[in-house]
Specification:
This protein is mainly α. It is rod-shaped, with a radius of gyration of 42 Å.
């Protein structure tokens, strides 16, 4: 009878330890999964922020290029007007008696 009780007691202790270890493993796995999810979200947020920053830089550069182009076009127009005036004056001076 002692052998039977001892065997049952050893079996009970082994089962208890197995369940306890299994529970700890499940908790560790759940914690790791949660941390991986948080890391993934942080990565997504960082990528989104980087994309927004890049978009802002592209828009700013395009606006600067557009402003410079408009400025250069205005200067070219002004130079063309001055050239036409100079040509008219030269033609007038050449035909004046």
């Amino acid at each position: 009878m002692n052998v039977l009780l001892r065997t049952l007691l050893v079996g009970l202790v082994a089962a208890t330890l197995t369940v306890a270890c299994s529970k700890e493993t499940d908790e560790a796995a759940a914690d790791a999964k949660a941390e991986m999810g948080e890391a993934l979200e942080a990565t997504k947020d960082a990528a989104s922020a980087a994309a927004s920053d890049a978009q802002a830089v592209v828009v700013e550069t395009a606006e600067e290029a557009s402003a410079k182009t408009e400025e250069m076009a205005a200067e070219a127009k002004e130079s063309a007007v001055d050239a036409v005036k100079a040509a008219k004056e030269a033609a007038h001076d050449a035909t004046a008696p």
